[in-house]
Amino acid sequence: MQVFTIIALVFAACSVHAKVFFREEFLDGDEWRSRWVDSKHKSDYGEFKLAAGNFYGDAEKDKGLQSSQDARFYATSARFEPFSNEGKSLVIQFTVKHEQKIDCGGGYVKVFPSDMDQTDMHGDSTYYIMFGPDICGYSTKKVHVIFNYKGKNHLIKKEIKCKDDELSHLYTLILNPDQTYEVKIDNEKVESGTLEEDWDFLPPKTIKDPEAKKPEDWDDRAKIDDPEDSKPEDWDKAENIPDPDAKKPDDWDEDMDGEWEPPMIPNPEYKGEWKPKQIDNPNYKGTWVHPEIDNPEYIPDANIYKFESIGVLGLDLWQVKSGTIFDNFLITDDVKEAEDIGNETWGATKEPEKKMKQEQDDVKRKEEEERTKAQETEEADEEDDDDEDEGGEEEEDEEEDTKDEEELSESDEAAKLQDKDEL
Ligand SMILES: *[C@@H]1O[C@H](CO)[C@@H](O)[C@H](O)[C@H]1NC(C)=O
């Protein structure tokens, strides 16, 4: 058989066997409740509702799970036929919309082993993969990519920035059997690389040779004092001298004022500390480089990417200001299929959604402008008789602002705790 024929056959076989393991777009009303299981691990988890939000591309298709209570943990999950990603690509994809201008909260999914107890899912439940955006204040705006390897969670070493606006965004993680990965946002690559390089799954390949030591006579000074140079004899001068131009004031009374002394001024001839000229060190050997040897503890592993029994996708996260909508969950082994579905769902939504938001923003801005105008007219009328009251109002406003900030920093703490829980 010709090589081309073989390649063609392999491609054909691959596309035939492309598989969608999980797809959830919430298109059948309340039926999602039969597919998603709320955790009972805590009694006060926040409630997810089915909603398209305040602006959308399509009132029905854009319905997704929306967090509906502020300052809550959320924990719900859906199960699918367990599978292993051995020898295949694994694609995890979903959309997130933080239409509430999120201050602090998770927008990520966790993918669990099939034996996870959904009714008891919580921050410490063992997961295979955690993927998606996380925002807290101004400092944390990143995409998590965490893999569990031999019982330990490993965070990606690269910083991937997430979207922080109020529109829907498509997040895609691709994990390949050749141990490469790719992260896409809105169907565009934002990061890629290899598991070995971008996570610390394995000990380093090489280590500093413990037997090697810098020789004692190793000279790593590039420059040295010029031995020929010496301090000029007239170098040392006082730093300050009596001002030669100062004169004793006419009315100076030695009995009353004591002996007159001229004030001190900086000496123009003062040259500071003498330092010898620097010359190239003839014995310079360069910086000593510690020789490396193969790390005896490094054992390559071609199966870091492999998960035995993937079976549950969950939302297990904390949010301060609720309103995030999760939609278009997809787990497949086909990169192209995922891109297609991303285009059909998020791709079809994004423009009309943006337009609707723009229109709402315009209306709000006009209302705001009119309110300000009305207020200004009112204030101008009252200006003379009501100055004190206005001052009082401003102070109250400031107090409220401070309170908001305090609440946010408290939530920061809570989120950090939650993060710690997960790591
Ligand atoms: C998805 O949409 C983008 C932008 O329109 C396009 O470049 C890309 O080819 C599409 N992907 C697929 C698989 O159709």
From TrEMBL:
Pfam families: Calreticulin. Residues 1-18 form the signal peptide. One of its GO terms (molecular function) is calcium ion binding. Residues 206-250, 350-376, 413-423 have a biased composition (Basic and acidic residues). It is found in: Cell surface; Cytoplasmic vesicle, Secretory vesicle, Cortical granule; Endoplasmic reticulum lumen; Sarcoplasmic reticulum lumen. Residues 251-260, 377-412 have a biased composition (Acidic residues). Residues 195-262, 342-423 are annotated as: Disordered. The keyword Zinc applies. One of its GO terms (biological process) is ERAD pathway. The keyword Zinc applies. An alpha-D-glucoside binds at Y108, K110, Y127, D134, D316. One of its GO terms (cellular component) is cortical granule. Disulfide bonds join C104-C136. Keywords: Calcium, Chaperone, Disulfide bond, Endoplasmic reticulum, Lectin, Metal-binding, Repeat, Signal, Zinc. Belongs to the calreticulin family. This is Calreticulin.
